[in-house]
Amino acid sequence: MVTRSLGVILNGVTGRMGYRQHLVRSVLAIRDQGGVLLTDGSRVQLEPLLVGRNAEKLGEIADRHGLPHWTTDLGATLGDAGYPLYFDAQLTAVREKSILQAIDAGKHVYTEKPVAESTEAAVALARHAQRARVKNGVVHDKLYLPGLLKLKRLVDGGFFGRILSVRGEFGYWVFEGDWQAAQRPSWNYRAEDGGGIVVDMFCHWNYVLENLFGAVRSVTAKAVTHIPSRVDEQGRTYEATADDAAYAIFELDGGVIAQLNSSWCVRVHRDELVEFQVDGTHGSAVAGLHRCVIQPRAATPRPVWNPDLVETRPYRAEWHEVPDNENFGNGFKAQWEQFTRHVVEDAPHPYDFMAGVRGIRLAEAGLRSSRTGHRVGLDNGMGG
C-alpha cells in the first residue's frame, strides 16, 4: 500500500486544546494508525512541525512524543515548501495575523475558531484565501460527537416530523481559582484577550443549529458576568471583564425556535455537560456528547398536572436509547481526516472560512442584543 506524507505546521500546541485534542488525539493518533486512508486505498501520513512562542514548552512536548521538528520562528517555517498545511490553535487575539501570513505563503489553512476577532476581519481572511486559491477549514468538532451524529441520523430519517423547538443546556462550574484551581485558562475571562462565553460558544451553536435544524435568522440574548473577579495561574486576583454566562433565543429557518443556555457558573444536574432536547410533531430526542434517547409520538405518555400529589412517574425511564450502530472515534480526529482528504484529493469539506464567519457574526449579534436589549436579525444574504 502506497503511503505519502503531508507536512503540517502546528501553531499553538502548548495550549490545552491544541495539545490534547489536535496534537495528541488527532495528528499523533492518525500517525499511529498509519495515516489517513484515501479513496484509492493509499494513505497519507501527517508529518508535524511544532511552532510556538515558548521554546521550553515546545521542546518538552517534542521530546515527550519523539517529534524532531519544532521552532519558535513561524516566518521561517512558512517558507518551507515541505509543509503545505498550516494549523492554528493560538489565542484568538493573535490568530488572524498568523493565518494571513500562512495564506500569503501559499499554505492551506485549517484553524480553531473563531477565525478572527470580528466578522469584518474574518470575511477579509476568507476572501484573501479564495484569491490565493488555498484550501481552508474551521474546526466544527461538535458535529462529530456521537450524540449529535445520532441526532443528525434522526433528523435525516424524518423521525421528528416537523421540528418545533430545540432547547440546549451547556456548562459547568469553573472554579474561581482561589481555593481550587480553575479548569479553564484565565484569558477566557478577559475580553481584552478575546475571552467570553459568547465569543466561545455562539460560534459552536451557529454551526450546530445550521447543520442540523436550519440557518439562524435572529437572536435575542443576555450575556452576563456572574463572577466579577477570579484568580489567575500565578495566584493573582484579576477583574473578569468578559461574560461567563449567556442566555439566548435563536429563530431558525422554518420557524424552529432554539433556546440555548451557556454558562461557566452552573452546577451540573444533567447526564452530560451539554444536552439538546429536540421536540417535533412525531417525536422528541435528548442528545448529549455521547448518548441520545428518543420518545416517539406513539410512545408518548399522558402527564396530568397535579401539584398536590408527589410525582412518582419515572419519566426518564420512558425514553429509549438510540444505538450506536457504528464505532464513533474522536470528533477532532475525524475532522482532521476529512480536511486532510480535502487537501490531498479534493474531497468535500464544507466547513470553510465562510462557515467560520457565520459563527463570529452570530456571536457579535448576540453581544449586540445583550447590550441593546433588542432582538437582532441576521443578514440572509451571507453565503457559504
* Classification by helices and strands: alpha/beta
Total count of helical runs of at least 4 residues: 9
Neighbour order of strands in the largest sheet: 17-16-15-14-8-13-12-9-18
Let me know the number of strands: 18
Distance from first to last alpha carbon: 37 Å
CATH topology of the largest domain: Dihydrodipicolinate Reductase, domain 2
Which H/E pattern describes the elements? EHEEHEHEHEHEHEHEEEEEEEEEHHE
CATH class of the largest domain: Alpha Beta
Structure write-up:
This protein has a 9-stranded mixed β-sheet. Strands 1, 2, 3, 4, 5, 6 and 7 form a 7-stranded mixed β-sheet that branches. It has a two-stranded antiparallel sheet with strand order 10-11. It has 9 helices and 18 strands. The protein is of the alpha/beta class and 384 residues long. The chain folds into 2 domains: 3-141 and 331-351, NAD(P)-binding Rossmann-like Domain (Rossmann fold), CATH 3.40.50.720; 146-329 and 361-377, Dihydrodipicolinate Reductase, domain 2 (2-Layer Sandwich). The longest helix is centred in the C-terminal third of the chain and has 20 residues, at 353-372. Helix 1 packs across helix 8 (331-345), helix 5 (119-132) packs antiparallel against helix 9 (353-372) and helix 7 crosses helix 9 (353-372).
